[in-house]
Amino acid sequence: MEKQKIYSEEFVKFADKIKEFENPRIKQTQNNNDMEYKRNTYLEPKHIESSYNVNGLGKDLYDLVVEHKPLKIIDFGILYGYSTVCLAQAVQDNGFGEIVAYDLFEDYEYKNGVKEVVKHNLDFYNCSHLVKLEQQDFYKWLDNPTPFDLLHVDISNTGDILIDIKEKLGKFIDNGSIVVFEGGGQIRDEIEWMEKYEATKMFPLRETLNYKVLRNDYPTLSAFKNNKIK
Ligand SMILES: C[S@@+](CC[C@H](N)C(=O)[O-])C[C@H]1O[C@@H](n2cnc3c(N)ncnc32)[C@H](O)[C@@H]1O
């Protein structure tokens, strides 16, 4: 007999949200051309819960990929797939490239990525064929990083994570790989959990670590400087 799957409360909540979004009456409000397999414009994945969709940061990620045309993209910290869908839409519009998206999924003790929801969201935006989803710990990967053209890091970032990135990926960055990350701005350093856990602030490190704040409003987006990010 097939073992019954037990879904977490979180999964059920989001699956319901997705079902609601897929209601044909609601779908009619979308521009159908945007949903075609070969998309050529960015479609804001508004229904995917993420701190990024508060002010449409996905478009910034999309634009970065369209501008720099990376072949190999790594997305660390997926949650329900917002950033991954935005990166994948750009890969689709570029016509080449691939994404490997990593998360700890259920091994993360706080609000974590849910693979089934991410798969569903990628399917919904016709992007599944462009993305490989894998369970991986960022710190383990950092000890033995695989080459990449663009890395996006969003794992509840703190200054300590940025210090590790710079130390372990400095050579990749100097050789032209782009590392873009959530946070880095002053407002982002002041959010509740940063204060609560006395996390190392990022903004005071921006000159030492040589990064540029791309978006200063919350949630912030920043990237390490090199020949591509000036
Ligand atoms: C803020 S959410 C990511 C949001 C996502 N990028 C988006 O666009 O909505 C942080 C994610 O990082 C994952 N995570 C936390 N620590 C991690 C680690 N050490 N390695 C891999 N993933 C991690 C969590 O499971 C969670 O899904």
What can you tell me about this protein's structure?
The protein has helices at 9-22, 24-27, 58-68, 82-94, 115-124, 138-143, 159-174, 186-189, 192-196, 206-209, and strands at 72-76, 98-103, 131-135, 150-153, 178-182, 211-215, 221-224. The chain has 230 residues and is α/β, with parallel strands linked by helices. Helix 5 (115-124) links the parallel strand 2 (98-103) and strand 3. Helix 3 packs parallel to helix 4 (82-94). S-adenosylmethionine (SAM) binds at residues 50, 52, 76-79, 82-83, 102-104, 108, 112-113, 137-139, 154-156.
Topology:
Elements: H1 9-22, H2 24-27, H3 58-68, E1 72-76, H4 82-94, E2 98-103, H5 115-124, E3 131-135, H6 138-143, E4 150-153, H7 159-174, E5 178-182, H8 186-189, H9 192-196, H10 206-209, E6 211-215, E7 221-224
Parallel strand pairs: 1-2, 1-4, 2-3, 4-5
Antiparallel strand pairs: 5-7, 6-7
Helix pairs in contact: 3-4
The structure holds S-adenosylmethionine.
Residues 50, 52, 76-79, 82-83, 102-104, 108, 112-113, 137-139, 154-156 line the site of S-adenosylmethionine.
| Global structural class | alpha/beta
Averaged pLDDT: 88
Count of DSSP strands: 7
> Which CATH C-level class is it?
Alpha Beta
Amino- and carboxy-terminal Cα gap: 59 Å
Q: Which runs of at least 5 residues are low in confidence (pLDDT < 50)?
A: 1-5, 19-36
Q: How many domains comprise the coordinates?
A: 1
Q: Report the radius of gyration as a whole number of Å.
A: 18 Å
Tell me the CATH topology: Rossmann fold
- What string, H for helix and E for strand, traces the elements in order? HHHEHEHEHEHEHHHEE
Q: Strand order within the widest sheet?
A: 3-2-1-4-5-7-6
- Ligand catalogue: S-adenosylmethionine
